[in-house]
């Protein structure tokens, strides 16, 4: 069972009601994302990229339009199917890490595997292996508060990979990290992408992401401004940098 | 949690030919108990403060209930405190205890909305979240209410003993009525804790995960 397109959106619109004002965060977005792609959703803050990220990940419902994951309309799924999708098909990485504060690194990584129904032995072993992969083999029993930002994000990455998802969704994964740590996180994601063939979709305004992306989706004002292939990117970085500020 | 283990066949579903769901998420009950116990243990002082809120409310309620029944027993059945006034006092103390308990539990749950959103991203069902918070609220509420009831009862008894003498109070102690008050108070405290602890958790679980993680309380 393999599909060319792993994520497709059709005319996705999203409105937020804030008091008496209705804000249109997305004004009709169509994207197709291929299996195994490393794709960056770029745009200034407030452009709607996090909203689009939430729609693709089934974390929020579009006001209008459809999101398809492996050709299944997310809106048609019931609560059980949606939970299964979030648990097994998609791994999430957030700007604020979102680790469960009272759990150790290992417990955080194993939680999705508990939901997936793995046995204790299986998930402990796999959890340790995942933490070793992200370079935290020595820190399995540490709590999030005992880890640096970069280390917390590594735990979050290990957790996102827990159930061998087909898609990794990363919302500003380097947003709260310094330059060097940010680069490490990006190359870690890229490594997982090329080694395991997992699709990485990342909402970001970190230009370091350009280097590793296969394609870039530029979002402005709730619309796709343009789509670029990697080949064309490098020439434009200078221009882009000027544009973004 | 038996139904969770069945793998579901989606052939009959709207999307007959295409399905990406091959099974069901689950949270074994034993694991849920372990998780909620660990949660209480790790947030030890936070849990103690929450339980103390329950404890104080219940101690107050029990002391009001038990002092009126001890006083009635001492005065040999004649109504010392008027019926209407007594109902008013008990009603007020119930209200105070409701507000106190609800406040403690509401706070302890609403500060964890982001955690609830995150759990849903990892594949938790609404039901799993309600289950975890139900277990926590039950532990906290029951223990808080039990300690509160005992503290309220003992302090009231001691107060009367110092005032009227140990022998007098002990010999006329309305044991059955006191026992009923304690039982009533423990049940009240536990039920209020569960209601105040589970409702906001259910509310957060019902939200879209993105919304729950955005919510700042």
Brief account:
The complex is a heterodimer of chains A (245) and B (217). Chain A has helices spanning 49-56, 79-89, 105-116, 120-133, 149-160, 179-196, 230-244, and strands at 5-18, 21-34, 38-42, 64-69, 72-73, 90-93, 167-171, 199-204, 215-220, 223-229. Chain A has 245 residues and is an alpha/beta fold.
Write up what this structure looks like.
The complex is a heterodimer of chains A (about 240) and B (about 220). With about 240 residues, chain A is an alpha/beta fold. Chain A has a six-stranded mixed β-sheet with strand order 6-7-8-3-9-10, sandwiched between helices. Chain A contains seven helices and ten strands. Chain A is about 35% helix and about 30% strand. In chain A, helix 3 (about 105-115) packs across helix 4 (about 120-135), helix 3 runs parallel beside helix 5 (about 150-160) and helix 5 packs parallel to helix 6 (about 180-195). Chain B is an all-alpha fold. Chain B has one domain (about 30-215). The interface between A and B is large, with 38 and 41 residues.
Share of helical residues of chain A: 25-40%
The CATH homologous superfamily of chain A is called P-loop containing nucleotide triphosphate hydrolases
CATH architecture of chain A: 3-Layer(aba) Sandwich
Cα separation of the termini of chain B = 32 Å
Mean pLDDT of chain A comes to 88
Shape of chain A: globular
User: Which overall shape of chain B is indicated by the principal axes computed on the Cα atoms?
Assistant: elongated
For the biggest β-sheet of chain A, the strand order reads 6-7-8-3-9-10
Q: What share of the residues of chain B lie within helices? A: over 70%
The parts of chain B where pLDDT drops under 50 for at least 5 residues are 1-18
Q: Total domains of chain A, how many?
A: 1
How many domains, in number, for the residues of chain B? 1
**Biggest sheet details of chain A:** 6 strands, mixed
Order of helices and strands of chain B: HHHHHHHHH
Number of strands of chain B: 0
């Amino acid at each position: 069972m393999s599909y060319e397109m792993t994520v497709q959106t059709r005319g996705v619109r999203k409105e937020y009601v804030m008091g008496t004002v209705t804000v249109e965060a997305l004004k009709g977005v169509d994207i197709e994302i291929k299996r195994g792609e490393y794709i960056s959703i770029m745009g200034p803050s407030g452009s709607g990229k996090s909203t689009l990220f939430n729609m693709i990940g089934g974390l929020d419902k579009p006001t209008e339009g459809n999101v398809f994951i492996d050709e299944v309309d997310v809106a048609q799924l019931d609560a059980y199917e949606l939970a299964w999708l979030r648990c097994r098909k998609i791994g999430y990485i957030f700007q604020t890490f979102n680790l469960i504060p009272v759990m150790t690194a290992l417990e955080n990584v194993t939680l999705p595997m508990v939901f997936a129904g793995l046995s204790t032995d299986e998930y402990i072993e796999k959890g340790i292996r995942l933490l070793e992969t992200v370079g935290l083999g020595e820190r399995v029993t540490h709590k999030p508060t005992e880890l640096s930002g970069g280390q917390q994000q590594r735990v979050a990455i290990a957790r996102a990979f827990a159930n061998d998802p087909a898609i990794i969704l990363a919302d500003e994964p380097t947003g709260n990290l310094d330059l060097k740590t940010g680069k490490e996180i990006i190359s870690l994601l890229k490594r997982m992408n090329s080694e395991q063939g997992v699709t990485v979709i990342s909402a970001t305004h970190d230009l370091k992401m350009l280097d590793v992306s296969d394609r870039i989706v530029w979002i402005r004002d709730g619309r796709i401004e343009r789509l670029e292939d990697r080949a064309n990117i490098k020439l434009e970085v200078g221009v882009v940098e000027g544009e973004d500020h | 949690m038996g139904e969770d283990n069945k793998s579901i066949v989606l052939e009959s579903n709207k999307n007959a030919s295409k399905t990406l769901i091959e099974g069901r998420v689950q949270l074994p009950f034993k694991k849920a108990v372990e998780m909620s116990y660990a949660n209480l243990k790790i947030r030890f002082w936070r849990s103690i403060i929450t339980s103390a809120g329950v404890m104080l409310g219940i101690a107050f309620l029990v002391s009001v209930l038990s002092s009126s029944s001890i006083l009635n027993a001492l005065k040999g059945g004649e109504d010392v405190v008027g019926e209407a006034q007594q109902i008013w006092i008990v009603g007020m103390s119930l209200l105070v205890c409701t507000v106190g308990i609800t406040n403690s539990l509401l706070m302890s749950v609403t500060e964890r909305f982001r955690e609830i959103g995150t759990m849903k991203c990892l594949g938790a069902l609404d039901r799993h979240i309600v289950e975890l918070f139900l277990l926590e609220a039950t532990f906290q509420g029951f223990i808080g209410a039990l300690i509160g009831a005992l503290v309220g009862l003992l302090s009231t008894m001691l107060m009367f003993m110092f005032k009227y003498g140990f022998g007098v109070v002990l010999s006329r102690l309305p044991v059955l009525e006191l026992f009923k008050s304690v039982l009533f108070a423990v049940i009240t405290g536990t039920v209020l804790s569960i209601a105040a602890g589970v409702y906001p958790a259910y509310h957060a679980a019902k939200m879209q995960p993105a919304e729950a993680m955005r919510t700042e309380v």
